[in-house]
Structure formats: structure tokens, C-alpha cells
Amino acid sequence: MRILLAEDEAHIGEYLVKGLRENGLVVDWVRNGPDALHQGTTVDYDLVILDIGLPGMDGWEVMRRLRETQMMPVLFLTARDMVEDRVRGLELGADDYLIKPFSFSELLARVRVILRRGKQKDMNVLTIRDLKLDVMRRRVERNGQRIDLTIKEFALLTLFLRRQTEVLSRTLIAELVWEMHFDRDTNVVEVAVRRLRAKVDDPFEHPYIHTVRGFGYVLERRE
């Protein structure tokens, strides 16, 4: 597996290159946006780990231009922890979004999950059976029927579809879609999932969003 790392901070880059290579991955490291775009459009990578605050061209623009021609998975690794940034990253087509500072074990786990899934044929159109989400057109359909979602519901469903069969904790969902720090006394995730289910599952015969008691939720096919 070959990974492109776009990171301008030398100590972080050296740390990641060493750790990823020790775990059997081939890593190409670049330190600015133009080099990241050049490498990403000329080499067939299994994953791009992309910082947002790159010199020369920020990660948003690199991501946008990569998506014009390339469908390789992308993991944003950045200090940008605003809710709007995480939602923007997911809507641009990122597979994951990890905030600095981070633990290497968590990064490696997320990398392995993405690599196991492999490349998707169309990173902008996410599907499971009769449910289809078009990231660029912001359109959701099930069984040919259009479903209208709020911004947060759309981001939540995008997260579920990009990480199908992976059990997602309430804390992780809250970090990626709402706030970085999840207050366990609030039920924002439960309420949002319930509303999403009412739109994409309840009117249809087979539900896709399932509760994993004591942990969180998973989107998958169950016969």
C-alpha cells in the first residue's frame, strides 16, 4: 500500500513517515500544496493524508482539484477543529477527518480501515442498495424517491455511508459532525440519528442504520 503524506511541519512529517513505514506502508512525503497536487495526479496512491494549512495551496484546494480527476481516498489531518471545517471536509469527499494533536495508534487504525475498504469507483456518489447520496449535488434518494435532509443530517449520512459496516461511537460522530468535545449528558447524536432514520429508514422495508448497544451506530445491510 502506498500513501501520499502532505504535511509541512517537519517533526510531524518525520514522525508519521517513520511510524507508517514501520507498519509496512510505503510513504511519499511532500511539504506544500503544489507538490501534493502534482504527486496526487501523477502517482496512483491508495490513500492521501492531507493537511489543510499547506503553503502554496491549501488542503481544501488540493482536495477540490484532486477530485476533478482522481478518486483515491483522502484523510484530512489538521489542527482546524471547527465544526464547519469538519463538515466541509466530509462534503468535499474526504473519507475521514482527524484533529491535531492526535495519537498515532488512532491514526493508524483509521488508515487501516480506509485501506481495507479500498478505492471507491465514485467517491462523490455513495450507495448502499437502493439508498444513494450524491455529495456534489447534495441529493439523497432511496428507491428512486428524493429525501430532503438538513445540513447536519446530510453530513451525518455522508459519514455513515463513507464508513459502512464500521461501528461509530457517539463520541466520534459528535467530533466529526458537531463539536470536538462530546458532552455525554446531551443527546444531540441520538436525536439526529432518530430524525435521520425517520427519513431514510422508517418509510422503507429494510433499515440500514442500526444501534450497537453501549457503543454507537453502524450503517450496513442486514437480511
Concise synopsis of the structure shown:
It is built from 8 helices and 12 strands.
Helical amount: 40-55%
Order of helices and strands: EHEHEHEHEHEEEEHEHHEE
Number of helices: 8
**Could you give the distance between the termini?**
33 Å
Mean pLDDT: 89
Which spans have pLDDT < 50 for at least 5 consecutive residues? Answer: none
- Morphology call: globular
- Radius of gyration (Å): 17 Å
- Sketch the major β-sheet: 5 strands, parallel
CATH class of the largest domain: Alpha Beta
Task: Based on the coordinates given, report the CATH architecture of the largest domain.
Answer: 3-Layer(aba) Sandwich
CATH topology of the largest domain, by name, is Rossmann fold
CATH H-level superfamily title of the largest domain: Response regulator
Strand percent estimate: 15-25%
Derived from helix and strand composition plus strand pairing, the structural class reads alpha/beta
Number of strands: 12
> How many structurally independent domains?
2
Protein name: Response regulator
Pfam families: Response_reg, Trans_reg_C
GO cellular component, one term: cytosol
GO molecular function: phosphorelay response regulator activity; transcription cis-regulatory region binding
What does this molecule look like?
There is one protein chain. The chain is α/β, with parallel strands linked by helices and 223 residues long. The protein folds into 2 domains: 2-117, Rossmann fold (3-Layer(aba) Sandwich), CATH 3.40.50; 125-219, Winged helix-like DNA-binding domain superfamily/Winged helix DNA-binding domain (Arc Repressor Mutant, subunit A). It has 8 helices and 12 strands. The chain has helices at 10-22, 33-42, 59-69, 83-92, 104-117, 151-162, 170-177, 188-200, and strands at residues 2-6, 26-30, 47-50, 74-78, 96-99, 125-128, 131-134, 139-142, 145-147, 168-169, 209-212, 216-219. The protein has a 5-stranded parallel β-sheet with strand order 2-1-3-4-5, with helices on both faces. Helix 2 (33-42) runs parallel beside helix 3 and helix 6 (151-162) crosses helix 8 (188-200). The longest helix is centred in the middle third of the chain and has 14 residues, at 104-117.
